[in-house]
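User: Hey, my collaborator sent me this sequence without any context and asked if I could get a structure. I don't really work with proteins. Can you help?
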Amino acid sequence: MALGMGETKLRILETLRSRSSCAGSLAESLGISKVAVHRHLEDLEREGLVRARLEKNEGRGRPKQVYQAVDEQAPYARMCADVLTHLKELFGAGLVLEVLTRRNNKLLEELAPHMEGLTLEQKIYRLTEFLTEQGYQASFYFENGAVYLEQGRCPKLALSMEHNEFCHTELEMYKKLLGVPVVREERIAAGGNCCRYRMDVTGTQS
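Assistant: No problem. I've predicted the 3D structure and written it out in structure-token form, which is a compact way to encode the shape of the chain:
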């Protein structure tokens, strides 16, 4: 349903899948103008992917318009967000981190055998292929003695914005999988245009 959708519109939809939001909050979290957000929301409403409702302000003032996603993925994203929030409230952020770490360790066990005997560049190529299949729009390039892995999309954007444990465990998994220090320079969940990781490759490709 989201095929052919522009990147900004898709990021708005992904955000609304796990939590309702007004246009102002969306503009602030995504780093774009409120006018642009309204334009994209109007398109999403026409396409039947987003629904608006009026919500009373806690104090004085006119009711504000709040938007939520209503596409087929939205109920699952909201359920996942609710479960993680309840886990954090009941047992603390440490449990959420442990759960996501165990999940990524399971994924690591599946991917690691495909990396054996490969150079760093070959490993990054394999990882890029896997991430692209998962909807991350991944690519990599070399620059000034380092290799950069970029993810143009975050399929779990709204969840990552509310639970940065997703980003933390993702970084740790890349370090283990590639076997070299990995530095994250930018992330979409923090308002960046992409998730960008840097790995120094001097002396590691032989």
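In plain terms: The radius of gyration is 19 Å. You can pass these tokens on to your collaborator as they are.
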